[in-house]
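Morning - flavin-adenine dinucleotide inputs below, output right after.
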Amino acid sequence: MAVPEDVLEAIRGTVGPKGWIGDAGGMEPYLIEERGIYRGACDMVVLPQSTAEVAAVVGHCARADVAIVPQGGNTGLVGGGVPEGGIVLSTARLDRIRGVDPFNHTLTAEAGCVLANVQAAADEAGAYFPLSLAAEGSCRIGGNLSTNAGGIAVLRYGTARDLVLGLEVVLPDGQVWDGLRRLRKDNTGYDLKQLFIGAEGTLGIITAAVLKLFPAPRTRVTVLAAVPGMDTVMDLFVHVREGFGDALVAFEVISRLGLDIGLEHIPGVIDPFQSRHGYYALLEVTSPRTGEGLRESLETHLADALEKGIAADAVIASSERQAQELWRIRDAVPEAQKLEGGSIKHDVSVPVSRVVEFIDRATGVVEKDLPGVRVLAFGHLGDGNIHFNLLQPKAMDRDDFLSRWDHMNRLVHDVAVELDGSFSAEHGIGRLKRGDMKRYKSAVELNLMRTLKSALDPKNIMNPGKIL
Ligand SMILES: Cc1cc2nc3c(=O)[nH]c(=O)nc-3n(C[C@H](O)[C@H](O)[C@H](O)COP(=O)(O)OP(=O)(O)OC[C@H]3O[C@@H](n4cnc5c(N)ncnc54)[C@H](O)[C@@H]3O)c2cc1C
């Protein structure tokens, strides 16, 4: 249904000439998404500049039952920001850092701040904001909170949900909830902010957030360890975690296939070892202090791991440049995968103790179903999150392979859920995984979610058709 002209006119009046886009060419980037699976349609892209403008725009839409799809950096991987009519409300111009409070270790940012700019503002204040993911140059903090983004430092700092003290939200009827508290303790009823975090824009529009800051790491040691097999990857993880506890901030794993396709397709990817190995663990240990001998104790710890046979070889970065080279091996995997041909993706999690069992079982199931399929397992293994992706058999037709997307998803998600895991660890549900919600969530859980949705958004105008 087209948005009534009087609503569009009211929105134009609210946001002014720079606050909206109505031509097809200008709207195009807001209608397509990262994976190229969906293509959306809408009548206007609106770019408000203040919370008051967001509230007024939502008010205009609520009065006429017009659907609103919030969008941040549009880097989401499940089609959550793709409109199916109505308007897109982009937070791109809502991008001020409202303040940094070093004493309370907080930073207040508007929803449209690009994640890298939030990190930089924290850094300028001598502090640290730990949320970090490969899309950080374009994703926006409101999008990160709305998807409860994970990324590479979950092991030490938790997901986006754990990094928030307060929120400001425009509700589906246009009211503003000012929950911008800076309190570490506040047990005054339901924790409303957590409702909006991970809600993918279905319950309201996050306009600003109070984020937690941490002491900046002053020492950082990055290691790439070569590991004989998946079971030893987990042994190495336990070994390092026991030795370094909270100082272990990242533990990423890349299979040999991941390194091979990186070497083939992405300039600057290197193999620092002389021999080939089954898996590689990229780990990072940090400390807010200097001169503590962190590097030396990690060296000793790794020598012990080599002796015990839970690592086959290891490189410790000797400079920032070398650390970046090692990270490049990991960061190159998603791009290399695109260039390697068709791939069917899974973002699952299982309890950390069951990661090896998951990879073994899921690999067995997909290889039996489609001989020649190539399993590319990589990701944030220290927190039980595996990007279990399937690359097309070399000789198979790409479209033929991709036509098996739902079938393969079903096989892999069944294994994850049987092992007490999740079919969406960090990317969310959006449009892509709505079917899985029906299959794997209990009726009680789905009903609770529907009750919340209809209580907050009885007209179903806030990102309709997503999640539920
Ligand atoms: C190269 C690459 C690497 C990635 N790595 C990771 C990773 O390691 N971990 C991870 O978790 N994700 C990862 N992602 C996915 C994506 O970057 C995250 O989901 C990110 O948090 C989305 O932020 P965004 O601003 O782009 O949100 P968008 O894509 O614009 O929106 C995502 C969802 O949030 C809603 N939304 C956006 N802003 C608001 C708001 N202000 N209020 C209410 N709802 C809103 C949208 O409607 C949509 O449903 C990666 C993506 C890419 C392309």
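Note: The chain has a mean pLDDT of 96.

O.
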